[in-house]
Amino acid sequence: MLNQEYLFLLLGLASMLAIILLALTLLMKLHQLKQLNQTVLYLKKSLEEMDEQAKLIVRTDLELNKTQEELDKRINGLYALQRISQDLSKTLNQEEIFDRINQEHIREIGFQKAVVFTKKAVEKPYLSHQIGFNEEFAKHIEDEFSRENFYDIIKEKNHAFSSVSKAPELQKIIKAIVTITKLDSFIISPISQKDGFYGFILLSSLSDEIPLTEGDQELVSILATQIGQALENAELFEAVYSQHQELEKKVIERTKELSGALSELKAVSKRKTDFVSAVSHELRTPLTSIKGYASILLSEKLGLLPQEIKERLDKINKHSDELAHLVNDLLDIAQIESGRFTMKLEPLDIKHSAQTVIDLLNPQLRERSIGVQVNLPPKLSFALADKTQIQRVFINLIGNAIKFVPEKTGTINISAFESSGGIQINISDNGIGMSHNDTENIFNEFYRVDNVINQKVKGTGLGLTLVKNIIQAHQGKIWVESRINQGSTFSFTLPISKEIPAAS
Ligand code: ADP
What we know:
Blueprint: H1 2-89, H2 94-99, H3 103-108, E1 111-118, E2 126-131, H4 135-148, H5 150-157, E3 161-162, H6 171-181, E4 186-193, E5 196-205, H7 214-299, H8 307-338, E6 346-348, H9 350-360, H10 362-367, E7 371-375, E8 383-385, H11 387-404, E9 411-419, E10 422-429, H12 436-441, H13 452-456, H14 463-473, E11 478-483, E12 487-494
Parallel strand pairs: 7-9
Antiparallel strand pairs: 1-2, 1-5, 3-4, 4-5, 6-8, 9-10, 10-12, 11-12
The site of adenosine-5'-diphosphate (ADP) has 21 residues, from helix 11 and helix 14.
C-alpha cells in the first residue's frame, strides 16, 4: 500500500516536472517567435527602403540622361557656333556675311528657319537675310513686323526671348509672331553693336515637339552677337577702305598738281638760267673789249696820257675786272644749275688745295696780320673732286673769312675729318659772325648781310651761291654755324675717292 502511494507520488512529481518542462519549452518558443517576428518586420522595412532607393536611382538616372542630352546639344551648338564665327571672320563684306549664315549652319545649332533684320543709317531694320522661307512670305513677315512695330519692343527688351517665354509684356508679341510667321516655336535675339540696337534675328526650332530651353536661347544670343560683330567689323572696314580710297584719290590729285607745279617751276628756272647764261655770255665780249681798249690806252702805245685820264682808265680797268668776275660767277651758277657744267673729277689732296689758296691769299693775310692754322689729319683720304672748283670754294670761303675777321687778332682755322658720309672740311674764323636769319639766307643769290664791313667793302652776294652749287654738284653738303661777334664756321663735305693718284 505504501509502495503504491509512493508510486503515485512519484508519478505526480514526474507529471509536474514534465508540465514545468513543457511550459519552459513553450516559453522559449514564444520568445523565439517574437524575435522572428521582429526580424521579419525589420526585413520588410529594409525592403521598402531599398525599393525607394531603387526608384530614386532610376529617377536620377533619367534626369542625368536628360541633362547629358541637353549638355551634348549645347556643346554641339557651341561647336557649330565656333565654326560659324570662324566662317564669318573670313570676310569683311556685308553681303558675304549673310551668305555665310546658311541652312546647314542653323541646323547644326538646332534650328530650321531664320530671318535677319538689320538697319543701316535708316531708322527701321529691314529684312536683310532669310533661310527656309520663300521670298514672298519673308516679305510678308517684313511688312507685318513693320506694321506692328515689333522693332521697338525687341529693342526695348534688349535680350533674347522665345515663344515659351512667360514674361507678361511679351505674350502679345509672341502670339502675333506665331500668327504672322506660322511658327509655333521660335527664339528672337536682338543684334547689338557699339552704337546700340542694330537689328534682330529670329530662328524657328527644328521640331515643335522638342521644347525650347534656356540653352537654345543662349545659343541664339551668341549667334546674334557674332553677326553683330561681323557686321560691325565689315562696316568699319568699309569706312576705313573708303577713307583710304578717298585719301589715295587726294594724294594722286595733289601729286598731279605738285608735279605740274614742279614742271612749271623747272621751266621757269630753266628760262631764268638760260636768260642769265645768255646775258652773261653777251656781256663778256663787250667787257673784254672795254678792258682791252683800256689796257691799250693805259700802255700809252697810242700816245701819252695825262695823269687824270690814266687814273680814270685805271678805274675803268678795275671796274671791268669786277664786272668780269661777276659775269663769270653768274655764268658758272647758271651752268651748274642747268646741269651743263662739266667737272673733271679726280683724287684731290685737300691739304694741297687749301695750302695753294692760302699761298695765293697770303698778301691779304699779311696785310691784315691774320693767322691761318691748318689742322688736317696726316692720313686724310683723297676727295673725289674737281681741283679748280674746290680751289674756288676755298678762295671764296677763306677770302670771306679774311674780310670779316678783325685786323691783327683775326684767326682762321681749317680742319677736316673723315666719316662714312665723306670728308668734312671746316673753315672757322673769329670774325663778326651773323644772326640766325642771315645764316638761313646767305647761300641765296645776291644776299648780303647789312653790316659795317659790307657797307665799306663791295661785294656781289654771289660767292656763297656759287660755292653751294659747286659743292652740290659734287654730291656734297654745305652749311654754316655762326654767332654774332664770335665768329663763323663754314662746313662742307666731299665724297672720298676710291682711287689714289699714282704720284702720291
Ligand atoms: P659777298 O662776299 O660778295 O657779299 P658772299 O655770297 O660771298 O657774297 O657772302 C654773302 C654774305 O655772307 C656776305 O655779304 C657776308 O655778309 C656774309 N658772310 C660770308 N662769309 C662770312 C664770314 N666768314 N663771316 C661773316 N659773314 C660772312
